[in-house]
Design a protein that fits this description.
Helix content: 40-55%
CATH architecture of the largest domain: 3-Layer(aba) Sandwich
Strand content: 5-15%
Strand order of the largest sheet: 5-4-3-6-7-8
Radius of gyration: 18 Å
CATH topology of the largest domain: Rossmann fold
Oligomer: single chain
Order of helices and strands: EHEEHEHEHEHHEHEHHH
Distance between the termini: 18 Å
């Protein structure tokens, strides 16, 4: 093979040096130009979102439990957008007392996803510490940032360095609903700080973490292989 295209540095390490090109799954800027402009951050309801496949190792149980135990935030809601895997997981989550604060959104189109995130205050990415998660670079993390949302994310070293380095959110133990609830409360109770985090994340997407930049490397590789 002339080259192998991979999504993360962790995967690139499995291949010979010089063979792997890392093309990260970053947001397409044009999809998010107006995603955060539907209303100002201060006007938004206390709505927290998770988008993507809803399966146990991605933390939905901990999210529902965290929302349940948050006090002092009237009207707080958790929006779950995506399909359940397995389907029976939905019944398990519905049996939790925190489900009364959940909005089940189902699978959303790209445009509807943008509209949802434009109404939210926080994006959640709370993957469990499974081996293939710790060095992952989940696209939902970068899409929350592109939408101008502060993030509450799993405290993995790679994610911590990114999020704390940019100042775009908080990291927590994804297995601890109390710690998750505490981080959500901090951001909801200090909207100026939360909005500033979201703004820094969005600026980082525009400057560095976007598909426009990744595509250049992708196309350059094809040019080198074909001689064009």
């Amino acid at each position: 093979m002339d080259a192998v295209i991979v999504a993360t540095p962790a995967i690139a390490r499995r291949f010979p040096a010089g063979k792997a090109l890392i093309v990260r799954n970053y947001p397409i800027l044009d999809e998010w130009v107006s995603a955060g402009d539907a209303n100002t951050y201060a006007e938004r309801p206390p709505l927290v979102a998770y988008v993507g496949k809803i399966e146990g190792v991605r933390g939905p149980t901990e999210m529902v439990e965290a929302i349940r135990i948050i006090d002092g935030v009237p009207g707080i809601r958790l929006a779950l957008a995506g399909d359940f895997a397995p389907a029976e997981l939905e019944s398990e989550l519905r049996s939790l007392s925190g489900w009364e604060r959940v909005d089940r959104m189902g699978f959303l189109s790209r445009s509807d996803l943008g509209l949802l995130l434009a109404r939210c205050r926080i994006g959640l990415v709370l993957l469990h510490p499974a081996p293939n998660h710790i060095e992952a670079q989940p696209n939902k993390l970068f899409e929350y940032m592109a939408a101008g949302l502060p993030v509450v994310a799993s405290d993995f070293p790679l994610w911590r360095d990114l999020i704390e380095g940019l100042g775009c959110g908080l990291v927590v133990n994804p297995l601890d609903p109390g710690e998750i609830a505490g981080a959500i409360s901090i951001l909801l109770e200090d909207p100026l700080r939360a909005e500033a985090m979201g703004r820094r994340g969005k600026e980082a997407i525009a400057a560095k973490y976007n598909w426009n930049i990744e595509a250049r490397d992708f196309l350059n590789l094809y040019g080198q292989i074909t001689g064009e």
